[in-house]
Design a protein that fits this description.
Order of helices and strands: HEEEHHEEHHEHHEEEHEHHEEHHEEH
Shape: globular
Number of strands: 14
CATH architecture of the largest domain: Alpha/alpha barrel
Mean pLDDT: 96
Structural class: mainly alpha
Radius of gyration: 20 Å
Number of helices: 13
CATH class of the largest domain: Mainly Alpha
Largest sheet: 3 strands, antiparallel
Helix content: 40-55%
Distance between the termini: 16 Å
């Protein structure tokens, strides 16, 4: 059996020698500021619209590298490149972050998606640790508490559902808030993050987690009960797996061994449940009752699902020492590097068909940017390095 500690250098080198240079060389908009994220296989820009959640994600990644890897001025400059654009154009009068802007910074899509706010808070929270700039800190704090105020009605006036008939709430928000609260712990007033983490953990484990299946539902009724409809039966293995490493990090922070163990168990359930026995890889969506999923892309294999799984398995192995996590890590590593890594050009493919062939060869677009691949490479590198 291969030793996982040998893989730390592979992930480090891919991050620093291939993926990060790709974004440094191709994503900067020298004329109007911010980043291009719609990049083809070679790095050529094919669309100039700017999506706030991807702008925030890239600010976060370069701030994280500056704070945790090396104090390189070029990395800080990259982070500021996006932050200045976001600060100038990214919010409406009430402080809500738009979904998308033109290249020049004019709003295209209203702030209907609270995840633009989540990644803006993450971006400025990490950036202020690098700059010490009180304005960066204030943007992070204001945005964070705006999210907290809106968490029960995240879409606000942009919610297209008829009120009262089928009131659903989504797992995605408590999931990301558990991670965001940890990232902003040093930015918020002392004790704030800890107070918010406990109810988030409780909601994940007592509402969305289903004891009978050992899986996490993407949506439940507002009272926490199961809803037997397309949305209510939906399982997203990647979301579940990503959430479990957030919970493991929270468990480490709180010194909660039971939480770490529970998160690792749920993660393993999701990996086994999502794995495609015929072609390999992890399915995008499944239906908990095994009915046909509503998403026609249900059987695609996506980059972020596999990258997040590698993080979760590496952390699970480091924290528990269970051999099962090591075996699964090696399986997912082989699949991911054999299918998503582009052998001719830097960065990774994002979308594969069920058989593992690229559906499109873009390296960035409306949904894929400078985030999951670099963050995943960084997380796996640092997690495995600890095992040396």
């Amino acid at each position: 059996m291969r030793e996982l500690k040998q893989y730390a250098a592979i992930y480090r080198d891919e991050l620093l020698d291939s993926v990060i240079p790709f974004w440094e060389q191709n994503s900067i908009d020298e004329k109007y500021g911010g980043y291009f994220t719609c990049l083809d296989r070679t790095g050529k820009v094919f669309d100039t619209d700017k999506f706030m959640w991807l702008q925030g994600r890239e600010v976060y990644v370069f701030s994280l590298l500056y704070n945790q890897v090396e104090k390189k001025q070029t990395w800080l400059d990259m982070a500021l490149q996006g932050a200045e654009f976001m600060k100038k154009y990214g919010r409406d009068a009430a402080g809500n972050w738009y979904f998308s802007l033109t290249r020049e910074g004019k709003p295209i899509v209203q702030p209907y998606n609270i995840f633009s706010d989540c990644f803006a808070a993450m971006a400025f929270g990490e950036l202020c640790k690098a700059t010490g700039n009180p304005e960066h800190k204030q943007i992070a704090v204001d945005t964070y508490f705006n999210i907290i105020r809106k968490q029960n009605h995240p879409k606000g006036i942009y919610n297209k559902l008829y009120p009262g008939t089928r009131p659903l709430k989504s797992f995605a928000l408590p999931m990301i808030l558990s991670n965001l609260s940890l990232i902003l712990e040093d930015v918020l007033e002392e004790g704030t993050a800890g107070k918010l983490l406990k109810p988030l953990i409780s909601e994940i484990l007592n509402v969305f987690y289903q004891k009978d299946s050992g899986l996490i539902l993407e949506n439940v009724l507002s009272d926490g009960n199961f809803c037997d409809c397309f949305e209510g039966r939906q399982i997203n293995p990647g979301h579940t797996i990503e959430a479990t490493w957030f919970l493991m990090d929270v468990g480490v922070r709180l010194n909660d061994a039971a939480l770490i163990q529970k998160a690792s168990e749920i993660m393993l359930n999701a990996v086994n449940y999502g794995w495609d026995e015929k072609y390999g890889g992890i399915f995008y969506f499944k239906d908990i009752k095994n009915y046909p999923p509503q998403q026609l892309e249900w059987d695609q294999k996506l980059w972020w699902v596999h990258v997040e799984t590698l993080i979760a398995l590496a952390k699970g192995y480091r924290l528990t020492g269970q051999e099962t996590f090591k075996q699964w890590f090696l399986t997912i590593h082989d699949y991911t590097w054999n299918h998503f890594k582009d052998r001719e050009y830097p960065e990774w493919f994002g979308y594969l068909n069920r058989q593992g062939e690229p559906l499109v060869t873009l390296k960035g677009g409306k949904w894929k940017g400078c985030f999951h691949v670099p963050r995943g490479l960084y997380q796996v590198w640092k997690t495995l390095e600890i095992n040396k």
